[in-house]
Specification:
199 residues, alpha/beta, Alpha-Beta Plaits, 2 domains, binds magnesium ion
Length: 199
C-alpha cells in the first residue's frame, strides 16, 4: 500500500495563458508588453506578459493604472471562446496520457502519478508530456512535481516561466523554507492577524 507521504503529484500550469494564446493568433505580439483585460472605466488586467510585468504591472490591477505604468503596452480584450478551445486541447492531451487528473482552472491541472515510478520515472514521464503539450499546442507550460498538491504548485511557480521542477520528499521542508516565491508578506500578515486576535 502506498502511504500519503509517497504520493507523486504533478501540477501543470500554462504560462501567462491568455497572453500566450494571443501570441499564437498574432506572432508579432511576442516579446511585447501585452495586457489582456477590460478597457471600460472599471476594466482590470486579466493577464499580462512578462515584458509588462517589468513595469510593475500584475493581473487584477486596474487597466488604467497599468497603462499609466506602461503607456506603450498593447491591449487585447480577450477571446474566451479561443481560450476555452485551447484549454480543451490541453485537457485532451492530458486525459489521453494521465492515469488520474483534475482540472482546477482553465489553465491548471493536477495529475496523480502515484505508483508510476514502479514502471518508469515519473519525472521523465511528466517531462515528455510537457514537451508533447508544447509541441501540439504551441503553448508554453510549466510543471512542478512533488509529494502533494501544495508543494507541486509552489514548485511550478518556482519553475516558471517555461520550466519544470521536481521536489524530492526529503527536500520538501528545505524547499519550502527557502522558496522565494512564497509570499513573505502573506506570512507576515498572517502573523499580525494572529497577534491581533490575541490582543
Ligand atoms: Mg497559468
Amino acid at each position: 500500500m502506498i502511504s500519503l507521504q509517497h504520493r507523486s503529484i504533478a501540477h501543470f500550469d500554462l504560462d501567462c495563458f491568455f497572453v500566450s494564446a494571443e501570441c499564437l493568433k498574432d506572432q508579432r505580439l511576442k516579446g511585447k508588453p501585452l495586457l489582456v483585460g477590460g478597457m471600460s472605466d472599471r476594466g482590470v488586467v486579466a493577464a499580462c506578459s512578462y515584458e509588462a510585468r517589468r513595469y510593475g504591472i500584475h493581473s487584477a490591477m486596474p487597466m488604467k493604472t497599468a497603462l499609466r505604468l506602461c503607456p506603450e503596452a498593447i491591449v487585447r480584450t480577450g477571446d474566451h471562446d479561443f481560450y476555452s478551445e485551447l484549454s480543451q486541447q490541453v485537457t485532451g492531451l492530458i486525459a489521453e496520457e494521465a492515469p488520474l487528473y483534475e482540472k482546477s482552472s482553465i489553465d491548471e491541472f493536477y495529475l496523480d502519478l502515484t505508483g508510476m515510478d514502479k514502471y518508469f520515472g515519473s519525472l521523465k514521464w511528466t517531462s515528455e508530456l510537457r514537451r508533447k503539450i508544447m509541441k501540439m499546442t504551441g503553448l508554453p507550460i510549466s510543471f512542478g512535481l512533488a509529494s502533494n498538491k501544495m508543494v507541486s504548485k509552489v514548485a511550478t511557480n518556482e519553475a516558471k516561466p517555461n520550466g519544470q521542477l521536481a521536489v524530492a520528499l526529503g527536500e520538501r521542508s528545505r524547499f519550502l523554507r527557502l522558496c522565494p516565491s512564497i509570499n513573505c508578506r502573506w506570512w507576515a500578515e498572517k502573523r499580525l492577524r494572529v497577534c491581533g486576535n490575541g490582543a
